[in-house]
Amino acid sequence: MKKGPWRDLLRFTTQQWLEGLQQILPHVDLFIDLISQFESRYESAKQRERALDFADLERQTLHILQQQDGKTLAPSPAGAATIGDLRTCWWMNTRTSTRCRMRS
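^ that's the sequence the OP posted. Answer follows.
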């Protein structure tokens, strides 16, 4: 990978790099605009249907399991109560195909 004709195709000056960025900027702006519109419509549709997707579940779980003081990243009381079980669960799942059982 360190030698070959392809290396000459990938060599350019800082000025060429900046010019390339300027050339693609309108397309990047359009793409970001489309993503923002999609996000807005998707959120509206989820709210209308009262639905959640996996990312929503992840955010809600983090909200429950961490302190909300905005200064530190620390477990909430609920998070602290389950952290040992979660470590055991992670350890088991990364080494076997068994499911974890939380203590009652």
